[in-house]
Design goal:
This protein has 346 residues and is of the alpha/beta class. The chain has helices at residues 9-14, 19-25, 31-37, 61-64, 75-80, 139-142, 150-157, 177-188, 202-205, 212-220, 239-250, 269-281, 305-318, and strands at 104-106, 109-110, 116-120, 164-168, 195-200, 224-230, 254-260, 285-290, 326-329, 338-339.
Amino acid sequence: MITETGIDVRKLRALPPARWQQEMAQAIREPRELLEILALSGTALAGRITNTNAFPLRVPHSYVRRMRPGDPHDPLLRQVLPLQQEAQLSSTYSTDPVGDLQALAQPGLLHKYQGRALLIATAACAVHCRYCFRRHFPYNTSETSLRDWQPALDHLAASPSIREIILSGGDPLSLSDQRLAALVRRLEDIPHLQRLRIHSRLPVVLPTRVDEALSDWLGATRLRTIIVIHANHSHEIDAEVAAALARLQATGATLLNQSVLLRGVNDDSTMLTELSEQLFAAGVLPYYLHLLDKVQGAAHFDVSEQQALELQQAMLRQLPGYLVPRLVREQAGAQYKIPLSPLASG
């Protein structure tokens, strides 16, 4: 069956697992294996690791190759290694910090903001970031399969004020191109939808995901496409990632980046400046710098609002304005992300 976008779904179905799917299946899942690869097995860090079945370690080898062997403070390692600090509960942190559950319009469909809605396309991710705001999300009740997308699609079709659909998860690009192409084709049938926004960490942690099959259907959709990648540190952007971003840009998509401000990872203005420079060199515009969503288990990553404002002021002194991401906080029940002005710091 050839869709109007020119994608032959039967051919996609017949393809063997792509390289990225094989790499995703081979992701490291044991913390001690990760430490052994990085020559950190005999360090004090080994005594601080944990591994919870609720949110276990998962990290592709391609991302690990960008970590510095022998460095227990490596900023990429810190983002993915589960530590005992995650068990420390805080009364100001919750399992639903941004109010996802109260915004569910249909199973898997969040309708928080005017003019746009978010479809949780899958629970799967290529990497488990320890600060993930959906680490406690009840995917077992909200994850959708292709046949279950109909209630969400019906809601979108009945809501002409929605002009933009956001694919999130999990990570939507962890789905096969067959499923994604079929989903996007159904979204294209909703006439008032104008934009398709995809939030994905895969182009950064698993750049082989940006292959010919993805480029084919992405470049063929009638929807204006925006891809929001997620990079927190300049060490994440190597030549392979830059090439993947160039392939995405060649589809006609607009590329944006959002980062999360994380203690011990990127709470440094020089590093944030370098990240913005490298992103723009790769064709990506810095978009958001998020304060940490207060999800239970991530309190050790928190950076104060005052420090965040000081970091943004330092970036403003070093960069043109278009390379300084907007500093924002997401607040449950708010009608938009709350911007934090650097002027508020005095």
